């Protein structure tokens, strides 16, 4: 055999060395027709373009009539069961050769190796297959092709056929009930689905008896209720429920799920089928009443509450006994929840109240109290004389006040200083529905002389408003002056005056910016506030770690040494200020780090009430298409325009995330108009790796989907105060950390991470991955929400790319920074996350990690 790149054939007799001997053909035994066929198999390693065969006769008494040359190959093949595609492959001369297969269209790799042996005879050795592919979600294998599931059927990515979700469980019954426990049993669904196991999830609810929320009908049974063996993913058809209250109607919902139920809910919003049963626990004796005593005069009024009736209450028995004379006692029976007694003044009594229902008598609630001494006649006379003198002083003061006002009006009239109402001032009040006499008087109480205000410098400026530093001469104090520009719209003026009206109703609070006064009698209207020299909290945090940007409006620079205790204090002060606003029935609607100002001694105060609204009921409904801070808003505000104090709780959780990531922007890389759809998937921002689980739990409590499940501001104050009280260690600089001098337990016994940059990097990667994963999953609500947001609900205050100055009027900004956002997390966004806690030559705060 000779291989060559050309068709030139060398003479074998002359160039024998150019040929390679590959086989020897011996003389065959001839048949009757004097002919025979000889077959030789040999492998050829191709080196050239042409292969030339030469035959050398060495005295054989035979001749060659024809030569046939052929080879074997393994054909193109699809392995139907494994959804593997094998290419055409030239068979080896001997033994076999391994060939790599691939998944067919719409199939994905599942497990094992996708290699198959091609044998020398051109046959695939299918038995050598170790791996397999499976169809994508909602597709199934039909003859080696992945076909979309029929309507009403679903498929997970596990290699099975499409199937339906199961129907609800059958024949649920209570097989055991007592006053504190019950046992349920049921039968499997009639429809279970193909090639799947049915599992069960349980949900327990009870009536909202005695709840303060009048809209509450049913509530969850609570974490104290015990399910045996468990509540979720049951593979058996019976369960025991314990720690229940007596004589309560409990509703138990049992959901049936199979392997495609989660996919049907995630992709199409189709809930699992369920069957429910309502079971009343048995009666028990009543609980212990809580007793209250009042003594307005000589008669003692007694009332009580009973939360655990445990049956139908028949009567209450009330008994009192005098401590120093046991013979003075009385017992009465009543069906009311109050009673009254005439007792002896100055004596100590013990009061007992117990209830009786159709099951029996409950324990007694006990109250011990001492009655006041009766005042004598002399004391009554002194009180009467004092009231007479006080009344006389009041009359005299009022007469002096009237006389002074008359004299003052005559003096002003003589000087020609009678003020006139300008056309502009009338237009201001009429345009914003503030023309009532009462409201004008209210303005007068806070009106300042514009000439007594000297502007020093502009602190921050937006599209329609600005905040300036000024000096108010009568107080000889620095103040912040909020004003509108000439191009401000009617809506901006209305928001400014609404903010002014709200602030006038509030008494001074240490953690809410104080109103000094206003000048709205002529253009431009001014609101004068107390001045806080460190500017907004967002810029304060970012500057503390060396990031110089335009967020901060303060003149003074923040300390580069912030501690964990500082950050916890910030969170507590903000919660305290919001707790006050909630008691005033004011919903802020724009609570964020940019709207919190920092004063001396690191005191935080809530500011910028331009979006705030007073609650006439419990809910404020947005009626305008104002642009709102989407990334700080809860789902009910984004979707339905409903705002309550619970909406501010959600925003407070986002603010906490800002504080404890030292000024990072929430939901990095996500557009504002996509926030509502993302929240509908159940997504919440992941825990930054450098904070404790307890601290993160406070944030997630604020992000509960149901507003009534979120905590209150007083609860948040208590929770953060507890963390402050448990505080053990102040954290120093990164240099100390890297030097190994900070490796001691910190808050609540947690430990400081050894590498802050590594922790920040892992957090950025985790956040990016989680966000990308959630953004790839769309819900059926997203189109509705996206339409709403594009009509104007998205945030002008979104801090992804454009943070406004926080003494500024943030909602005046018409710049839509969302248009510049990418659909995915950009490298810029990730780099911003990597900056958490990292600052060159700066001492920065560090939180703790378990």
Automatic annotation (TrEMBL):
Matches recorded under CDD domains: FN3, PTKc
Any Pfam family the entry gives: PK_Tyr_Ser-Thr
Domain Eph LBD: 1-79
Acidic residues bias spans: 798-824
Localization per Swiss-Prot or TrEMBL: Membrane
Matches recorded under SMART domains: FN3, TyrKc
Topological relation to the membrane, as annotated: Single-pass membrane protein
Location of region: Disordered: 791-825
Domain Fibronectin type-III intervals: 168-284, 285-376
One GO MF term: transmembrane receptor protein tyrosine kinase activity
Catalytic activity: L-tyrosyl-[protein] + ATP = O-phospho-L-tyrosyl-[protein] + ADP + H(+)
Cited PROSITE patterns: EPH_LBD, FN3, PROTEIN_KINASE_ATP, PROTEIN_KINASE_DOM, PROTEIN_KINASE_TYR
Protein kinase domain ranges (all copies): 453-724
Residues of the signal peptide: none
UniProt-recorded name of the protein: receptor protein-tyrosine kinase
Taxonomic source organism: Stylophora pistillata (Smooth cauliflower coral)
């Amino acid at each position: 055999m000779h291989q060559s790149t050309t068709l030139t054939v060398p003479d074998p007799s002359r160039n024998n060395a150019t040929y390679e001997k590959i086989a020897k053909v011996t003389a065959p035994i001839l048949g009757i027709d004097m002919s025979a066929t000889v077959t030789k198999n040999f492998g050829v390693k191709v080196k050239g373009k042409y292969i030339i065969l030469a035959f050398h006769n060495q005295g054989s008494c035979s001749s060659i009539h024809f030569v046939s040359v052929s080879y074997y190959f393994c054909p193109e093949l699809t392995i139907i069961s494994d959804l593997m595609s094998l290419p055409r492959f030239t068979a080896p001369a001997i033994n076999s050769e391994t060939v790599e297969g691939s998944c067919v269209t719409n199939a994905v790799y599942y497990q094992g190796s996708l290699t198959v042996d091609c044998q020398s005879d051109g046959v695939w050795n299918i038995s050598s297959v170790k791996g397999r592919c499976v169809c994508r979600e909602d597709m199934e294998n039909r003859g080696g092709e992945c076909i979309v599931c029929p309507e009403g059927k679903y498929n997970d990515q596990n290699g099975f056929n499409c199937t339906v979700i199961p129907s609800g469980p059958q024949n649920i019954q209570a097989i055991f009930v007592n006053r504190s426990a019950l046992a349920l049993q049921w039968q499997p669904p009639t429809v279970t689905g193909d090639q799947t196991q049915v599992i069960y999830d349980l949900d327990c609810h009870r009536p909202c008896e005695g709840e303060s929320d009048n809209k509450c009908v049913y509530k969850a049974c609570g974490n104290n209720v015990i399910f045996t063996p468990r509540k979720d993913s049951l593979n058996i058809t019976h369960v025991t429920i314990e720690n229940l209250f007596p004589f309560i109607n409990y509703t138990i919902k049992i959901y049936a799920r199979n392997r495609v139920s989660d996919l049907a809910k995630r992709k199409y919003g189709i809930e699992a089928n369920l069957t429910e049963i309502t079971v009343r626990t048995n009666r028990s004796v009543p609980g212990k009443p809580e007793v209250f005593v009042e003594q307005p005069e000589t008669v003692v009024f007694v009332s009580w509450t009973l939360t655990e009736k445990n049956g139908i209450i028949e009567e209450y028995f009330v008994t009192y006994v005098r401590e120093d004379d046991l013979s003075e006692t009385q017992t009465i029976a009543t069906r009311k929840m109050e009673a009254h007694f005439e007792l002896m003044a100055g004596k100590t009594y013990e009061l007992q109240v117990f209830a009786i229902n159709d099951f029996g008598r409950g324990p007694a609630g006990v109250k011990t109290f001492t009655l006041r001494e009766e005042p004598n006649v002399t004391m009554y006379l002194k009180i009467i004389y004092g009231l007479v003198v006080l009344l006389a002083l009041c009359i005299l003061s009022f007469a002096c006040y009237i006389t002074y006002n008359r004299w003052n009006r005559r003096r002003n009239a003589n000087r020609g200083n009678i003020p006139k109402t300008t056309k502009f001032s009338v237009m201001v009040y009429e345009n914003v529905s503030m023309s009532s006499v009462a409201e004008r008087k209210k303005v007068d109480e806070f009106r300042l002389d514009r000439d007594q205000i000297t502007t020093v410098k502009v602190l921050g400026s937006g599209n329609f408003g600005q905040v300036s530093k000024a000096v108010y001469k009568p107080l000889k104090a620095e103040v912040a002056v909020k004003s509108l520009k000439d191009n401000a719209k009617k809506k901006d003026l209305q928001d400014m005056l609404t903010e002014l009206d709200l602030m006038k109703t509030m008494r001074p609070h240490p953690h809410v910016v104080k109103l000094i006064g206003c000048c709205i009698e002529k253009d431009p209207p001014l609101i004068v506030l107390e001045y806080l020299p460190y500017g907004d909290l967002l810029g304060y945090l970012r500057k503390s770690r060396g990031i110089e940007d335009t967020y901060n409006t303060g003149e003074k620079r923040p300390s580069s040494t912030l501690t964990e205790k500082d950050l916890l204090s910030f969170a507590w002060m903000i919660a305290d200020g919001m707790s006050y606003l909630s008691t005033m029935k004011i919903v802020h609607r724009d609570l964020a780090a940019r709207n919190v100002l920092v004063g001396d001694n690191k005191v935080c105060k809530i500011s910028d009430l331009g979006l705030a609204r007073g609650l006439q009921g419990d809910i404020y409904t947005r009626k305008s298409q104002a642009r709102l801070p989407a990334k700080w808003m809860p789902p009910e505000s984004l979707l339905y325009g409903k705002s309550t104090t619970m909406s501010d709780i959600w925003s407070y959780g986002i603010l906490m995330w800002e504080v404890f990531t030292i000024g990072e922007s929430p939901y990095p890389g996500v557009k504002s108009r996509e926030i509502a759809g993302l929240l509908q998937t159940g997504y919440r921002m992941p825990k930054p790796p450098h904070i404790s689980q307890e601290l993160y739990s406070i944030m997630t409590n604020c992000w509960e989907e149901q507003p009534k499940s979120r905590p209150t501001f007083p609860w948040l104050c208590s929770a953060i105060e507890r963390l402050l009280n448990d505080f053990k260690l102040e954290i120093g600089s990164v240099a100390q950390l890297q030097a190994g001098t900070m490796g001691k337990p910190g808050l609540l016994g947690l430990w400081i991470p050894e590498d802050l940059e590594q922790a920040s990097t892992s957090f950025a990667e985790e956040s990016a991955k989680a966000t990308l994963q959630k953004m790839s999953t769309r819900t059926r609500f997203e189109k509705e929400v996206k339409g709403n947001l594009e009509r104007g609900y998205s945030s002008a205050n979104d801090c992804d790319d454009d943070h406004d100055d926080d003494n500024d009027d943030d909602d005046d900004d018409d710049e839509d920074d969302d248009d510049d956002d990418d659909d995915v997390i950009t490298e810029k966004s990730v780099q911003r996350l990597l900056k958490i806690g990292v600052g060159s030559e700066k001492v920065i705060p560090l939180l703790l990690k378990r």
